[in-house]
Amino acid sequence: MIRYWVSEFDVDGIRLDAADVLDFDFMRALRRTAEEVKPDFWLMGSNSWRLQSLGKWRDSAQCYKLCSAQSNFIADIMITTISRSPIR
After folding, report:
1. Are the CB atoms for 11 and 44 separated by under 8 Å?
2. Do 45 and 58 form a contact (C-beta atoms < 8 A)?
3. Buried (b) or exposed (e) across 5-43, using 16+ Cβ within 10 A?
4. At 25, is the secondary structure helix, strand, or coil?
5. Do the beta carbons of residue 57 and residue 41 sit within 8 Å?
6. Where are the beta strands (DSSP E) in 1-88?
7. Could you give the strand order of the β-sheet that contains 13-16, starting from the edge strand earlier in sequence?
8. For residue range 59-82, what is the model confidence (pLDDT) as tens digits?
C-alpha cells in the first residue's frame, strides 16, 4: 500500500483510522516498509494512544478523549464569555 501511494503520488504520510484495532504485526511491518520506501514517511494512528507498548510504529497519535476534553473546555469558556457580554 505505501509503496503504491509513494510511487504513484509521492505522498509523505498516511493516517490510520481506528489504529487500536489493527493487527500489531501489521503495524510494525507497515513502519518497516515506510522507512524502506521513504525514510521520512509519516504515520499517524487515531486512537493509538493505547498502543504505547508497540514502540515507535507511528509518528503521531490522535486521541479522541483528549480532543473531546479540549473542545468541551473551549466551548465552556465561549459560552461563559458570551453569556457575560453586555452586547446581546
Report:
1. no
2. yes
3. bbeeeeeebbebeebeebeeeebeebbeebeeebeebeb
4. helix
5. no
6. 13-16, 42-46, 60-62
7. 13-16, 42-46, 60-62
8. 555 555 666 666 777 777 777 777
Please provide the DSSP assignment of 59-79 as one string: SEEE-HHHHHHHHHHHHHHHH
Distance (Å, rounded) from C-alpha 87 to C-alpha 31?
A: 54
Instruction: Report residue 50 as a C-alpha cell.
Output: 493505547
How many Cβ atoms from other residues are within 10 Å of residue 46's Cβ? Answer: 18
CB 51 within 8 A of CB 19: yes
Whether the model pTM is above 0.70: no
Mean pLDDT by 10 residues, the chain (88 residues): 92 82 83 92 70 54 62 75 68
Count the Cβ atoms, other than its own, within 10 Å of residue 48.
22
